[in-house]
Automatic annotation (TrEMBL):
The chain crosses the membrane at residues 136-160. Keywords: Membrane, Repeat, Transmembrane, Transmembrane helix. This is Pentatricopeptide repeat-containing protein. Gene3D superfamilies: Tetratricopeptide repeat domain (1.25.40.10). GO terms for biological process: RNA modification. One of its GO terms (molecular function) is RNA binding.
Length: 173
């Protein structure tokens, strides 16, 4: 029912129904967040997201997409922090903490890699290793793309070997 209100553009009724629910599930949280993003009210979407007990991939993607659509220069949550670089106006920097979720690292490294910021993507991989956060296949794919985009073939090979030797991850051919 929340989705019906959201699709009709009645975010007030959607929120009232959500607040009256006894046990909100991930779907109801994500649906309401999506509604706020579409209104567009990123402030309210952010408040709701921070209160969400167990944000999943869909809710993270909704928030990142929402901030991207709004053209915001700042994205924050308790574990993920972007801010416009004072040294490079228009460039977002990732502020990390030791307790970042792997999905946060995935999103940021992938974003840097896909926008041609190979050095930043590689620096975050180094920090992940320093903080003993185990990279995923997705992170390594982003690192390989960053290296390929920047013409860093030898460095890409080094990271490929690291994937196999340090993390015992076999290529998925």
């Amino acid at each position: 029912m929340i989705m019906c209100y959201v699709k009709a553009g009645d975010i007030v009724s959607a929120r009232e129904l959500f607040d009256q629910m006894m046990g909100q599930d991930v779907f109801s949280w994500s649906t309401l967040i999506s509604g706020y993003i579409s209104t567009p009210d990123m402030k309210e979407a952010s408040k709701l997201f921070v209160r969400m007990p167990n944000p999943d991939i869909m809710s993270w993607n909704l928030m990142i997409s929402g901030f991207d659509q709004m053209g915001n220069r700042e994205v924050t949550s308790s574990n993920l922090f972007f801010k416009e670089s004072p040294e490079k106006p228009g460039v977002m920097e990732f502020r990390y903490s030791r307790d970042c979720f792997v999905i946060s690292w995935n999103a940021v490294i992938g974003g840097y890699a896909s926008h041609g910021f190979a050095a930043e993507a590689l620096e975050l991989l180094r920090l992940m290793k320093q903080y003993n956060v185990r990279p995923t296949y997705i992170i390594f794919l982003s690192v390989f793309n960053a290296c390929a985009y920047a013409g860093l073939v030898e460095l890409g090979q080094i990271h490929f070997k690291s994937m196999v030797s340090e993390f015992d991850m076999q290529p998925l051919w």
